[in-house]
What we know:
The longest helix is centred in the N-terminal third of the chain and has 19 residues, at 54-72. It is built from ten helices and 15 strands. The protein has helices at residues 14-17, 54-72, 84-92, 103-113, 162-174, 191-199, 210-218, 249-259, 269-274, 291-299, and strands spanning 5-6, 23-27, 44-48, 76-80, 98-100, 115-121, 130-131, 133-137, 153-156, 184-187, 205-209, 228-232, 236-237, 240-244, 282-284. It has two domains: 21-128 and 238-307, D-Maltodextrin-Binding Protein, domain 2 (3-Layer(aba) Sandwich); 133-234, Periplasmic binding protein-like II (D-Maltodextrin-Binding Protein, domain 2), CATH 3.40.190. Helix 2 (54-72) links the parallel strand 3 (44-48) and strand 4 (76-80). Helices cover 32% and strands 20% of the residues.
Amino acid sequence: MNQQTRLGGATTALAAATLAFLTTLTIGGGAAMAADCPVDGGTVRFGVEPFDTAPRLTPIYEKIGAMISEKLGCPVKVFVATNYNAEIEAMRNGKLEIGEFGPLGYVLAHQVAKAEAVAAFSNKEGKPDNYWASLVTYPNSDIKTVADIRRHSFAFSDPASTSGHLFPAYGLRKAGLDPEKDIKAIYAGSHTASFEALYNHKVDAGELNSEQLESAIQRGHYKDGDLVFLWKSDPIPTDPICLRGDLPDAFKKKLTEILQNLDLTSIDEADRKVMGMHGTRFVPQTDAAYNGIRDLVKTLNIDLAKLS
């Protein structure tokens, strides 16, 4: 029997939630002519996946939206999505021009919403950055190995999350566990929610990625020894910054050049860490960088259609 549940009874009501985002910001470019900004009356809409809370992400992406607006000459409206699929649905319905998706979310968005990866966060060497996923429990639990998670409650973040579902499911399967049958799977709705569920001992084990760990450290909500790491993934390519593929070619080219060379040194270092950045800029990224995610989807026999 499938034992998956959702904390707080949350469900993904995609049609209703397409634009039910937590935060909406319109930034700059008020004098731009619609001819120069040929989308939605001249406004470029930028969706951000909810990898942290909206109050934490909003001021960071407000600054990034302002940078894009200044270089593009168009107003930029920033949305922090309520869930991963709401952002994908928004782009599928032509409601977003730019989207920051998680790697798995991008693979799905590329398949169903014409998303095209053009940029990513940089590392210190100026190359596309990466991060990691993990399986964790709390000290003094009776879980000592991944195999011990059998029959225990486990917090995933979101079904369409790379580090919050895909890689944790892979880590469980490597230990001989079926994530659909052998554990009491809970979808908390976000990385922050799954972290809090574990931190407060509402579940026995759960996922934790390096970005959420850094955010918790920044909030003073984590110190070494608070959690026990049972398994860590290999490096995962970080979130791509994507454009909707059916934008006018000249406009898409201009926006791509801006995104691939956006200098983020004016963003506070602590905020860049929350974003998962180890460098200081966006750099070019390609669709092929996420073929490893596609291979893992096949290995785990995940039906992407069921995530959309």
